[in-house]
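Morning. Coffee machine broken again, so started the prediction first thing and wrote up yesterday's gels while waiting. Chain of 222 residues, entered below exactly as on the submission form.
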Amino acid sequence: MEIVYEDNHIIVVNKWAGEIVQGDKTGDKPLVEDVREYIKEKYNKPGNVFCGVVHRIDRPVSGLVIFARTSKALERLNRMLREGDIHKTYWALVEGHPDKREDLLENYLVSNGNINKTFITDKNNPSAKLSKLKYKVIGRGDRYSLLEINLLTGRKHQIRAMLSGMGHPIKGDLKYGAKRSNRDGGISLQARRIEFVHPVSKQPIVLTAPPLPEFNIAPHKE
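Came back before lunch.
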């Protein structure tokens, strides 16, 4: 477990592809339990240890995840998340080369929980939710492009569905149309940077995860 930030109120962990943040029907041990055990051991805490999940990222995705060590921090961070005051920047390696170097994508999305997949749909669909993201091409190889992505809404599988919808699925993301899987079973999407105001000290926090090795491609040129 790689901890990138820690104090008395929050812990931020760099999650590896394949880990789950919270428990699910698989029964696999979630990252929140690893964090709870770490707190218990490091600080010699008796009994049950509080560790609150502020947000999640998909199992095949890597990158930064915030956990709260106190109920006060969890409540404040949850409110900040709802109000859009926690800013996450993602990097994604996608198949092909987008026509535009940067763009704003807007789609109506609907999720099917039975198959755990999100689809682009018509705005007249009563279950559809308007979803927005901005992307910028920051690297380019022979077959792939490296994108920096800023979410303007927070929908399930939003980045994966919307990039696939524009014809450039994320490398390794078979569920959303990638040609082949990655060796580790993950996808080439990383929660790269996170910015927020500390829920207690009110100091600005900016944290960055080390980039995935596969992101080492040539910078994009005009």
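Residues 100 and 137 are 8 Å apart (CA to CA). Going to sketch it on the whiteboard this afternoon.
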